[in-house]
UniProtKB/TrEMBL annotation:
Signal peptide: none
Official protein name in the record: Tubulin-tyrosine ligase
Origin: domain of life: Eukaryota
Acidic residues bias locations: 441-453
Amino acid sequence: MISAKRSSSTNLAAGNAATPRHADPSKRTATPTSPSSRKRKWTPTINVENTKHAVVLRAGEGIGLAATTSPTDWTIQWQDGVVTVDQLLHMRPWQRINHFPAMHHLCHKDYLARNLTKMRNEFPREYAFWPRTWCMRTDAVAFTAYAGARARARAARGRPPRWYIAKPDSKSRGIGIYLFSDPAEFQANPEYEMVVQQYIERPLLIEGYKFDMRVYALITQCDPLRLFVYKEGLARFATEQYGSGPALDNQSQICMHLTNYSVNKRSTKFVDGGADGGSKRTLTWALEYLDSLGHDGTGAIWASIKDIIAKSILTVQPELARVFRTCAPNGDGSLCFELLGFDVILDHKLRPFVLEINHSPSLSCETAVDHTLKQGLLENIFRLLNPTSLNPRKWMRRDRKQAKQRLYLSSTTATPTSTAAPPAAPGSTPKPAAAPSAADQDADVESADEADEPATPPPRDAPSPPPPTDSTPAADTDAATAYESAHLGLFERVYPPSDPATVERRGRCCGVESKGPVAPVCGETAANAAGRAAASRGAAEGDAVDERE
Ligand code: ADP
């Protein structure tokens, strides 16, 4: 854990006060202007001005981040709203913000439906975790035809028609959701897009109640993708018994069909019973409970949950990377990080389905379970970001070294008769200096070659240093991976997976790590890919963010 450190201004003030008035000048070593006065620890900071959740700051301070209100000089910024292009353009390479642009591709119901349906059509087995979904503005005819045909086929076998769930695209927390089985019951809304999804009619029940799981995933880099899944989460229970499932006489009972906390907390039957009882329990409890029934919850079921999370994100990774590169030409793909909340439900055969992905999962701490879970989650995230490696001075030192090397190289190239020693062995390409690596994380900033460092970062409108991606050698990636491995906490690295065969399979399927123009995802034509690109250009800014649980 990073220890809390005092701010530099406090140190300087203390230095002044501690200098005796008539001390021997030869022994006076710590005046405010002497080089040694710069020997102070740098403290990473967190800006939480734009979040309403106190738990973010608590977690940040818990791992040694200092709160700052500065709109420009911060190490980590957490905000409830989406990140704007302007914010990204002004970020320095040593800063981290908690959203990627273009996350609507995953987190808006209609975009998610289009992206995952495309994949499901192309890879029905691999993407069977995505229930059939229709975006009704464009797919109403297809939906009516499908539902009609299914109803006739089932009637021929003496079975009732299937049930569907309609959800407004731009709403959350169960607002505007309803169930229906007759396609004629669907009601379009002129104000927003509706998606209709096949209803999982036979979910796995615990104690007779329907429940879903909130699973947290963290993206720390989009290009190449670095993805982690948190081992702890929530199991959220409906507050009415599920009985034998949807029927005409219970289709409007939201506390039976919806597992949202925000819906069920209003019920008188809601029980705040702690981690292993009541209407909101921990994910661990649910998986271990399944273990106790012989279902291998913590093994096979957890593995398949991680798998569907990775597949969902990989579907949009090329687009995330492309939009990121457009919005942050100087960024290395790790300027942003994103905490995602996956809503996952198990059916009676224990198959997991993704219902929704939230890019602002609720951080409210209304129950005891929330409090412990969310503070721990945030602390783990901040630790994984390796904030002590984000020291601006280290980045500037690296850039200065690079500039010197470039200058030196060009002067030796221009004057071949120069007597100066060559910067590198004949025939070898001079290596750029590495970005501050994970190995630096606990190093102080007081090394001798830093004596002439400016005490403050350069003005924000100064040209940004070159992107670390261009200059980071593989060794730095290894160091970053080693740091991550040592600081995973409750996170598990899901991508890149340790098994190269999985990388190959998923990469081929989803166009991962492709560079250049937007890569078509599986089953998508180049024209569609270009269409997505155009759509995301318009949508990179200004997504409405709604907290979801
Ligand atoms: P919201 O963003 O409003 O929370 P969700 O898609 O998460 O919308 O749906 C809310 C709840 O409805 C889920 O938590 C789940 O309990 C239920 N639900 C949603 N889709 C389905 C589905 N296809 N099958 C069964 N239950 C569903």
